[in-house]
Fold:
Amino acid sequence: MRTLLAPSRLAELNASEANLKQLGEHVRSLHKASGGLQLP
Structure:
């Protein structure tokens, strides 16, 4: 499906996914730092 996207749209999608991954990592680190529940 990605091959059908224009190069500029593909770049936007990749950037959005990278931002989402970075945000998730940051939220998890904040949760851990605040003493949140850690699953094994």
User: Anything to note?
Assistant: The mean pLDDT is 94. The radius of gyration is 15 Å. The chain is about 70% helix and 0% strand.
